[in-house]
């Protein structure tokens, strides 16, 4: 459930105003406390998390679900899935027939 892969990406998102804590824009050095709601906008997708606890030191990505609860509505995930399907289905005009790889990707999406 890790939102950003690196601390540098998280810092850049904070500076861009894409991260809010309790509906206030967060600065990169802001400490998060238990009970706060964190919203992260990634493109057109907004992920919402509630902080349950704060670890004493940095932890691995696998241990992160112990410290937060995902509150993102299912509609957001459905919209993200629809956009990814539309991107795959969209082909440039004049690009010819789909390749075997393109057809396999389409088959995987609709299974």
Brief rundown of the structure:
The protein is an alpha+beta fold. It has helices at residues 7-15, 74-89, 100-110, and strands at residues 19-21, 24-25, 37-42, 45-51, 68-70. The protein is elongated.
Structural features:
111 residues; alpha+beta; Structural Genomics Hypothetical 15.5 Kd Protein In mrcA-pckA Intergenic Region, Chain A; 19% strand; five-stranded antiparallel sheet
Describe the structure.
This protein is of the alpha+beta class and 111 residues long. It has a single domain (7-110), classed as Roll (Structural Genomics Hypothetical 15.5 Kd Protein In mrcA-pckA Intergenic Region, Chain A), CATH 3.10.290. The protein contains three helices and five strands; from the N terminus they run H-E-E-E-E-E-H-H. The protein has helices at residues 7-15, 74-89, 100-110, and strands at residues 19-21, 24-25, 37-42, 45-51, 68-70. The chain has a five-stranded antiparallel sheet. Strand 1 and strand 2 form a beta hairpin. The radius of gyration is 18 Å and the shape is elongated. The model has no long low-confidence stretch (mean pLDDT 87).
Computed over alpha carbons, the radius of gyration is: 18 Å
Poorly predicted tracts of residues: none
In the CATH hierarchy, the architecture is: Roll
- Largest beta-sheet characterization: 5 strands, antiparallel
Percentage of residues in strands: 15-25%
The outline comes out as elongated
Strand order of the largest sheet: 2-1-3-4-5
Indicate how many domains the architecture comprises.
1
Ends: how far apart?
25 Å
Instruction: Name the CATH superfamily assignment.
Output: RNA-binding S4 domain
Arithmetic mean pLDDT: 87
Number of helices in the DSSP assignment: 3
Quickly give the structural class: alpha+beta
Q: Mind telling me the CATH class?
A: Alpha Beta
Helicity range:
25-40%
In CATH, the topology is named Structural Genomics Hypothetical 15.5 Kd Protein In mrcA-pckA Intergenic Region, Chain A
SSE pattern: HEEEEEHH
Q: Tell me how many strands there are.
A: 5
């Amino acid at each position: 459930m890790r939102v950003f892969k690196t601390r540098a990406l998280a810092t850049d998102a904070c500076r861009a105003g894409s991260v809010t804590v309790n509906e206030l824009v967060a600065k990169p050095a802001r400490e998060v406390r238990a009970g706060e709601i964190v919203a992260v906008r990634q493109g057109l997708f907004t992920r919402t998390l509630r902080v349950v606890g704060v670890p004493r030191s940095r932890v691995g990505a696998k241990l992160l679900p112990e410290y937060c609860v995902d509150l993102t509505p299912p509609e957001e995930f459905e919209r993200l899935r629809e956009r990814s399907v539309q991107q795959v289905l969209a082909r440039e005009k004049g690009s010819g027939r789909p390749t075997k790889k393109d057809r396999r990707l389409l088959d995987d999406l609709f299974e």
